[in-house]
Design brief:
- By secondary structure, the protein is of the alpha/beta class.
- Helix content is 46%, strand content 13%.
- The strands form 6 sheets. The chain has an 8-stranded mixed sheet with strand order 1-7-6-5-2-3-4-8, sandwiched between helices.
- Helix 28 links the parallel strand 22 and strand 23.
- Helix 1 runs parallel beside helix 2, helix 2 packs across helix 5 and helix 19 packs antiparallel against helix 25.
- The two termini are 63 Å apart.
Length: 1082
């Protein structure tokens, strides 16, 4: 005997039961009593009830929720018709918004609205009690005793899920008494119920995405509102209590709000405003806001600022000026001395690009600090927040950018869109390395641009706050604010070339020297360990690589010295010749000292061999790099190479000793007298001269003073701190004290290229070539700052050339020398930025225009529109998600763009008529959504829903890939990680291991698996390699391992699963939401 119960399993669903009733009975009356109603559920049964003349649906409302809301307001819940209507229609609207985005489902919803409006169905709401019962009553027109109807009751609501998807428990009853009792109960509840207000039905259609009357302009505005979100609201009160003399600038307020938001979301961010816009001020304001927002006053946050030594005093002054409490400033080199890293809440790192190498000791110390949880007095632990200040986050190799991100994000457990950053960056790095091997410069350039664009969009942009002067000047609100506060930025003129001409003999010597430095010299003096015999060479890991790098550094130094000044070059050349001779002399004496950490050359040149031997004896037991060798310990090729280099160096020294002229200096003096102090271009009569070489700055100062220029200030790393007060008085336009004119020329090495105001000057002379564009911008930033008074900044660069008869030949010869420089320096020195050709002057020809943030332009536009027309913005902000529109476009007919979002990422997907798909960037998408206010819409084409579904499918496919990599992190482990984890596993079963030690090893494995520390697996593998061929007691080996592991902050790492299948993210983060879409047709 069969059962009357059914559970929606095995094709025995409520929907099929309802279909069967209507198929075998002439149903005249259909009544439904349900707790929840969905229009999509009604659509599912509508085809069965089309011939039924009387349809009534009675729906309950959530009385519990309304009672709770009333109680929260201190009121008693008193049900009324109006409130019941509101609750019911809010549910219907929500149901429509959450229904499957499908043409068939939408048609059903439209039909539902029409059926109610025409009276095809009658609906009522019961306002006084929660209706948990679900009853479906089917009756024929006239009663008869032979099965005139049936009742279905159970757990299924009139929803798509209740009808066929959920596991439910329902039963069908056919006895007359059951039908009678159910009908009487329904009638009683029906009498108590409230009729629905039909005006609400029209309102539902208007306020849901089913509204067909949206205009392209409204959709464009909605697109911007959804994308920018809270960023549109300019909160001037987020920055208050500024110190005297500081102005509340709107672009800095935006940077504070944006930076604070990113920091709280991702635990860190890059503050990358271009030089001169006040990054230190913005960071200080964010720190102050964090201090008072981070559970103050019950918790007083501690802030640590890490800076290069040259910037320490400036930071201390700024923090004191802004009255930021509980802060400590240390220099980069002092990281290893830091105590109690768990006590700091916020870490600020200035010039953060200095930490881009993950193999450096400083990097490892900083990463451990940033990944150490903050422990408060109450014992609770919290993630640290990190601000990385760098004007050039993208001016590095892909792996350098990755290393900076890994200071606050785990490499394989990130909350960025790319959850596995290690895999993402490995792909970009591999592409980068392949490109570097190509010959075609354009192919290299295009490839590198593509790589960096992907990194910018996927990683850098979500983590970066960056404004340029072009942004400030190009956006009306910023420009107006700056003008009202009396701030302007000078125009940076294109660099001007100063050619210094070499006579025939000097020109020949110059070219021969460049050729010798780049091609003939082999720099054997700096490759000694490379040529050691094998048993000696074992002592020096990566001996060949280190030797090649040292030789390259020396070559680069000499090439740059000849560009700097002939005097600096002569000194460097003599030093190298002498160092090479020292090595040859050691070979002659039969004893060769290899001691990289001692001053071997200097001591031997000073004839202090006894002192050197004494230092070696003292250090040889603590310094493993020291080795005392004989000539037999070297490959014979080494001494031969030293002798060949010696011949070349001796000839060069002799030739250059004969040179007494200095055409570069003479040309410079001429420019000083005729142009550089001309008040038309230099209104304050101040000049800044940069050189990379200390010898050049000293030589210039001496020579210029001999020629009558007496008011010269020379700054080097040795005197920088002592001379800063004088420098501020004479060159800082923001100096609040008595400004002076004791000096009008400052000559400096790169020590003044960072963190200093020199903007009473507006003329910069690069006495030697600033080959790196970043360095050039840093130098310009010294004079192009807030408070600059000049209207223009002038830059002068020197170029050598031969003596020729016309300007065309002059430039041609200069280009040839520039190309020779490029060849001599080789691929490892990036003279040119990625889009420059070696045969051109590259960055020296270009005007110094900063890039403009196009995204910022749209933000400022929508912000201005909100200010001008707040009613419009308020209305459009209420438009429902999924709003869509049809537009005319002959170029992309029968296509659709869909904006989709989940909690992890945004996507802009373009689907063409042929089904091909393209992921757009925001800027590409916004240009398509952009519309005029008077543009009319057209009907959606018949591929619209299919194309939106395709976009959602693509979105889900990518997220499934991300989820898969997140859940099974082990699948993407590199060989170093696998090796370290396997080694750790070997210790778990040592009998002497304690539970605490086991726990530490488990946590170390977890840290490696999620990519928390870059150096941890390397340290473990070093231990493994160093003890591979040595018999060591396992207990002692375990002690060594634990001593390594305990150097890392593993205390708060929780082991999540024994099989390393790690549930990293909540599933909710991946649920896609259709934000907006539009389809194009002719």
């Amino acid at each position: 005997m069969g059962t009357n119960f059914f559970t929606n399993e095995k094709d025995n669903t409520l929907l099929e039961k309802i279909e069967g009733v209507f198929k075998y009975k002439h149903v005249h009356f259909f009544d439904a009593l349900v707790g929840y109603f969905r229009a999509s559920g009604y659509f599912k049964i509508r085809k069965f009830i089309q011939q039924t003349p009387h349809i009534r649906i009675l729906v309950g409302i959530n009385v519990d929720k309304l009672t709770y809301q009333a109680n929260q307001q201190g009121l008693l819940f008193n049900p009324n018709a109006e409130q019941s209507q509101e609750e019911f229609f809010n549910d219907i609207k929500k149901n429509i918004q959450e229904a499957k985005y499908d043409k068939e489902v939408e048609d059903g919803m439209y039909q539902f609205i029409e059926d109610i409006m025409t009276g095809r169905i009658i609906m009522r709401i019961h306002p006084k009690q929660n209706i948990h019962a679900k009853i479906y009553i089917f009756r024929e027109e006239t009663y008869h005793p032979h099965g005139y109807g049936s009742v279905i009751t159970g757990s299924s609501n009139l929803t798509e899920a209740g009808l066929e998807n959920n596991f439910e428990f329902n039963v069908e009853l056919r006895y007359d008494d059951d039908i009678k009792f159910a009908t009487e109960t329904f009638e009683k509840l029906w009498e108590e119920s409230v009729e629905i207000d039909l005006t609400h039905i029209e309102k539902i259609k208007k306020e849901s995405y089913l509204n067909p009357n949206f205009t392209p302009y409204e959709i464009y505005i909605k697109f911007l509102l959804e994308y920018f979100g809270k960023s549109i609201d300019f909160d001037s009160n987020s920055v208050s209590d500024l110190p005297k003399g500081y102005k509340k600038l709107s672009y800095q307020i935006d940077a504070v709000n944006d930076g604070y938001s990113k920091m709280m979301k991702y635990n860190g961010f890059f503050l990358s405003d271009v030089v001169g816009l006040g990054k230190t001020i913005v960071a200080a304001l964010i720190a102050k806001r964090f201090f008072f927002s981070n559970d103050f006053p019950t918790h007083r946050s501690r802030i640590l600022v890490i800076v290069p030594p040259a910037l320490k005093d400036g930071w201390i002054e700024t923090l004191e000026t802004f009255k930021i409490d509980n802060v400590k400033v240390i220099t980069n080199g002092s990281l290893h001395k830091l105590r109690s890293p768990e006590s700091y809440d916020l870490i600020i790192v200035d010039e953060a690009h200095k930490f881009r190498s993950d193999t450096a000791l400083m990097y490892n110390e900083l990463q451990k600090l940033c990944k150490t949880k903050t422990i408060r007095f109450d014992g609770s632990s919290h993630d640290k927040k990190v601000i990385l200040i760098s004007a050039t986050p993208l001016n590095n190799k892909p792996e350098d950018i990755a290393n900076l991100v890994y200071l606050f994000q785990d490499s394989k457990d990130s909350n960025l869109e790319e959850g596995n950053l290690q895999r993402f960056f490995r792909e970009q790095t591999d592409k980068y390395k392949k490109l570097k091997k190509l010959k075609d410069i354009k192919e290299i350039s295009d490839g590198i641009k593509s790589i960096y664009e992907k990194i910018r969009v996927k990683v850098v942009e979500p983590l970066t706050v960056r404004r340029t002067r072009a942004d400030l000047i190009g956006n009306e609100a910023y420009r107006k604010d700056l003008a009202e506060q009396g701030i302007s930025f000078p125009a940076v003129k294109a660099p001007e070339k100063i050619y210094y001409q070499l006579d025939a003999d000097l020109d020949t010597l110059y070219d021969q020297t460049i050729e010798a430095l780049g091609k003939r010299l082999r720099y054997f003096r700096y490759q000694a360990i490379k040529y050691l015999v094998s048993h000696k060479k074992k002592k020096y890991p990566k001996a060949d690589m280190v030797s090649i790098q040292l030789a390259g550094i020396m070559k680069t130094l000499l090439v740059k010295r000849i560009d700097s000044s002939f005097e600096a070059f002569k000194q460097s050349l003599r030093r190298y010749r002498d160092a090479n001779r020292v090595m040859l002399n050691m070979f002659e004496k039969g004893t060769i000292y290899i001691a990289p950490n001692l001053h071997v050359n200097e001591l031997l040149i000073a004839d202090k061999e006894d002192e050197l031997i004494k230092q070696i004896d003292e250090a040889r037991y603590t310094d493993p790099t020291i080795e005392i060798c004989t000539p037999e310990d070297f490959d014979p090729q080494f001494i031969k190479g030293l002798q060949e280099d010696d011949d070349i160096l001796e000839n060069l020294v002799a030739a250059w000793d004969k040179i007494t002229q200095d055409p570069k200096l003479e040309e410079f003096v001429k420019k000083l007298k005729q142009e550089l102090f001309d008040r038309n271009i230099n209104p304050e009569g101040k000049l800044v001269i940069f050189s990379e070489s200390k010898e050049t700055t000293e030589y210039l100062a001496k020579e210029l003073k001999h020629r009558g220029f007496s008011k010269i200030l020379t700054v080097t790393s040795a005197n920088r701190n002592d001379i800063m007060p004088v420098l501020k008085e004479n060159f800082d336009a923001n100096f609040s004290g008595n400004k002076k004119d004791d000096f009008d020329i400052v000559i400096s090495t790169e020590v003044l290229a960072e963190g200093v105001n020199l903007h009473r000057a507006n003329v910069i002379v690069n006495y030697d070539t600033p080959w790196n564009s970043t360095r050039l911008m840093q130098r310009i930033g010294r004079v192009n700052r807030i408070g600059s008074t000049a209207s223009e900044v002038h830059i002068y660069n020197f170029f050598p050339t031969a003596k020729v008869n016309n300007d065309i030949e002059l430039e041609k010869k200069a280009k040839m020398k520039l190309f020779a420089f490029h060849s001599a320096l080789g691929e490892d020195s990036q003279i040119y930025s990625t889009d420059e050709q070696p045969e051109s002057f590259g960055l020296f020809d270009k005007s110094i225009d900063e890039e403009r943030d196009e995204k910022l332009r749209y933000l400022m536009w929508i912000r201005q529109l909100k200010s001008d027309n707040p009613e419009l913005i308020k209305r459009i902000s209420k438009l429902p998600l999924r709003a869509r529109v049809g537009r005319k476009n002959k170029l992309i007919p029968r296509s659709t763009i869909t904006f989709i979002r989940n909690k992890r990422r945004d996507a802009f997907t373009f689907v063409r008529e042929d089904g091909s798909v393209e992921e757009l960037t925001f800027l590409e998408a916004v240009k398509e959504f952009q519309a005029r206010i008077d543009e009319k819409s057209i009907p959606l084409h018949n591929l619209h829903h299919e194309q939106v579904a395709k976009a959602v499918e693509i979105f889900n496919q990518l997220d499934n890939q991300i989820k898969a990599s997140d859940k099974k992190i082990n699948t993407s482990q590199g060989p170093n990680e696998k090796k370290a984890i396997a080694y750790l596993d070997g210790f778990i079963h040592i009998p002497e291991i304690s539970e605490d030690e086991k726990d530490l090893i488990v946590k170390a494995k977890q840290a490696i698996t999620t990519g928390k520390f870059q150096q941890l697996q390397r340290d473990i593998n070093k231990l493994q390699s160093s003890t591979k061929n040595i018999a060591i007691n396992p207990v002692l080996l375990l002690e060594n391992l634990i001593s390594i592991i305990t150097q890392y902050p593993l205390e708060n790492i929780g082991f999540k699963s024994s099989n390393s299948t790690i549930m990293i993210k909540s599933e909710k983060e991946y649920i896609p939401e259709i934000i907006i879409s539009e389809s194009f047709n002719v």
